[in-house]
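As a representative case, the lines below give one protein's residues and fold tokens.
***
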Amino acid sequence: MKSDVEDLMPRLLPVEYEDSSADLKLDGPPRNPQEYLRQVQLEAALCPEVVVAEIDPKKLTKQQTVNASLAGCPAAPAGCCPSLSWQQRQVANFSDVRQSITKNRQHWSSHSLDDNVSMPDKRDEEGWTRFCLGELAYQDLLSSNAGAVTGLNYSKVGFPPFLSIVSRLSQSEVLSVLEILGGWFEEQLFVPQLGRWLFALLACLEKPLLPEAHSCIRQLARRCAQVRSALESQDDDNLPALNLLICLVARYFEQNDLADQPE
């Protein structure tokens, strides 16, 4: 007894057996290892090549939860869409930044951090949000009061993404912080300090991307486009940063369906 699959594909476990397959009983216990393997082969040969599941459609009409979003980014408002040449320049500049970080990562990571710098655990969402955006991020005052804070009080305004900090992050930590800040951004408006960190984390994100990284950066681009679509003026100070983040996700990380398409 020999199936078509056996003719086309070599066996991973060749089994020597006598020509007595007709005497084998699939429901009986094998008497030796060779007989066991032969029974497995015979069972496989009896399996149909195509199996169709019988599903009652009525059971699928209730309690269906679908959260996947396949939509692209909202179109940019009139006058806010960057030109293709601008997008290409940003991708080229971003590529240079990434190469520089890779080349000098060991140098920067060897620099000792200041005594006031205490990096949170990668799973500490509140700790990383405070570390990156400062205490004001939890008071809805970041955009209005950041300029009123005197001196370099990083506990108030957040630590900048210094190379000595981001170079210490492993890939899992880069993605974790990116997800944490992206989650904060889902509920809050865009602020410059957030933009600096998102740019730095994207610059440290290695390719090829993991599936969870794909999902994270695509959601980030959509959120940037959503915030951009609500801008009241093309002169808004946050427009270039929002355009830049959308451009990098779409053009550099090859999420082309999210890219701005200038007319």
Q: What stands out?
A: The CA atoms of residues 104 and 167 lie 9 Å apart.
